[in-house]
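Recall that a protein's primary structure is simply its ordered list of amino acids. Everything else, from secondary elements to tertiary packing, is in principle encoded there. The following example makes that idea concrete.
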Amino acid sequence: MPSWSSRKNSLPAISLSHHRLSELSLVNPFLRNIDTLLQCLGLRSYFCRYQSRINIYSSAADEKLYRKISGRLVNLGAGGFRHPKWINYDYPGESLYYRRLQGVAGKDFQPIDLCSDLTDLGSEPVSAFYISHTLEHLPFSYGESVLSHIYSNLLASDGVIRIAVPDHEKTFYQLKASIIPSMSIFEDALREFTTHMLSKTSNLPIWSVAELFESSKTIESFFDNIVKLDPAMTSFDPCNPGNHLSLWSIGSIKELCFRMGVNSLNFRSANSSPFPPFTNNLVFDTTEPQHSLYFEIT
């Protein structure tokens, strides 16, 4: 891969923020409708729903990040991601909110079920894959299959796969080290943490979760011990595709990459990358960057 600066790029932009924006299902459809006008003005737009913010930025400055980039650019699990140079793939949403966020199937995104047939990704080489907060919604074995397939069969020889997952490991050790003033506050924090790690733990009594937390020394053992209570918690449910089903820790990522025989694995920070487009912090790595673990495979 060519040598590029890995520092994040803050492009010329105007940002509009309001705490209610993330609740409105028509924000992304509205931005799609005014894209033609914005293009005439030399502008592009992006809706960061987790930050409840709309970014209007310079298309000319953004184009400079793609000067030496050729080949397909693919976003897997794209959600509301919008960029003219990227092909979006996602599981069709269940809720009206998410369907409006994604846009029109076949136009704004290509429908795909990453738990079944990956041939929908085609066979043409891909210069870059962006997979942001997608793998945790799959059983780990399916996530491994996805990465193995795209790395072995689709990634160009000088291509890159950038992945973002929740950094549950950091939160686990922070919670372990915290001095919490009351049991109720601790239980609330533990419940929030475990349901974000594995959605269906919300059905477990908090005392059993607390016992496992206290007896587990690593995030991997904590996750495994919870799953033993009900292995079905890691199964994909088509009616609830937003459920979190798998743990992606530094250790499990390293082991997976070893099995895959990857050439290079690098852990990154938000918008830090030798691939210039990923340094655009108005578009990439906008989903809870303070709680995310980033890594790139080449």
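The longest strand covers residues 155-166. Residues 140-154 form the longest helix (15 residues).
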